[in-house]
Design goal:
Strand content: under 5%
Shape: elongated
Structural class: mainly alpha
Helix content: 25-40%
Number of helices: 2
Largest sheet: none
Distance between the termini: 65 Å
Order of helices and strands: HH
Number of strands: 0
Length: 54
Amino acid sequence: MNLYVNNILMEEGKTPCLTARELEELGFKLGVFALSGLFAATKAIEECFRFPDP
């Protein structure tokens, strides 16, 4: 019997995010941190276009 389990965590969410190692220790074979890259890119773009204080 195959059992597939999904664990979805979001940065800045209520549930603490687990590291890849912690997920592996819990038996997960794959961890996808889909929003991490998007959040980093958004922050970089925001900082790029921010005007300096006068």
